[in-house]
Amino acid sequence: MHATAALEIMPAITSMSQMKPASPKKPAASVKSEKRPASDSPTAASASHVAPAARASAAKARSAGGSDLLSPRPLNPPTLARQMLLRREKLKPRVAIERLLCLQAQIARPPFVALWSRLDPFRREDLIASIDKRELVRSTMMRATIHLMARQDYLAFRPVIQPVLSGGAERIFKDDVEQFDVARIVAAARACFDARPCNFAQLRDHLVTQFPKLNERAMGYLVRMHLPLILMPQTGTDWAYPAQADFAVAESWLGEPVETDTAAHALALRYFAAFGPASGQDFQSWTGLGAMKSVIDDLRPKLRTFRDERRRELFDLPDAPRPGADEEAPVRFLPEYDHVLLGYAERTRIIADAHRPALQTKNLIVPAIFLVDGFIAGLWTVETKKGTARLLVKPLIALSKPVKAALTEEGERLLHFVEPDAKSHAVDFDKRA
User: Fold this and answer.
1) Structure pTM?
2) What domains lie within the chain, and their CATH numbers?
3) What is the mean pLDDT of each run of 10 residues along the chain (433 residues)?
4) Backbone φ/ψ region at 161: left (φ over 0), alpha (ψ -120 to 50), beta
5) How many CB atoms lie within 10 A of CB 262?
């Protein structure tokens, strides 16, 4: 693994070759001088879904021996801090994405909203510029889903994730794949993409001419999982990519090959930097990789360990920021498929179990969410009719007047970001609010 894969991801990681903690960074909770919009003003005390008992439990845990036992409430502020959700940070989009490791990008707009909620200032033009300069790439990665990440991270970590991708193709089209000459099909696809970038409908048409007796859908999926491909941006589109993007071979598009090291150690350290404290199961769930016990065991000298209330072992970088449980968090609107939800197998640090069914959809789309006091408190969508852009807010909890005011202010800013050309903007709350 090249040292460039580290790219100063968190204050605690400075070199991929050394993989040693750096000097401690002052926790975000200690930053007092930052000027924030009114919507960033904490409204935690008015959030009805955080019971006083949770804060008492946190205090007990802190006084009982430091940081050894962590319940969902104490886990919440460190999670928000790593995910840049306690306060907006002044970073370039590329640097922010490197710290976050990547952003899920099943559709084109979510990474823009994700960064808008995490950075100040943030302009969509800046993210588009990094994509156009090929500093950031959009490709199939963790859990065989599409992510936006730094080019060097993609080149370094694609071989680590390859078993997930290959295994997925074999499971979904097992009967077909057993009849395939995988190497020949992938080579034919590569020649097609190198001749001219194209979308998958065009690729399948091409493959059918060479392999007329084979399942075209299975061939297309097999290529998507086996051949490192980059979705190509298109100039003039609102969110950098068209709805049906063309693909190019990663090595051809980036001018350098994907690396060959398949060890998951560096990826695990980067994961704990962005998501810790977290369990080995959390890491497996987010990446889609199989058992990682041996990797975690190898890394133990570089990690600090904790236990959650169910006595599961959690891991973190020793000097990574871990704000206290009394850290107050501003309201935040987050996009579909946001990192903060999908980064864990056990998600009580960010959502109450009672609210999880509200996020389950028939088409498997992970809906856009908003946070109150650091926890998921509802869903949101945007619709534009007759020149008016409306943010439709659907709470999962009762909202106090101060919280609704903060959501309204933040929501109006969000609307102006995602629908800047609308003649008017409005924030509407579901009747439950």
Assistant:
1) 0.83
2) 136-254 (no CATH), 351-429 (3.30.300)
3) 33 32 35 38 34 39 45 88 96 98 96 98 97 98 96 98 89 79 94 95 95 92 95 96 96 96 97 97 96 96 93 95 91 96 94 92 88 97 95 96 97 97 96 65
4) alpha
5) 13
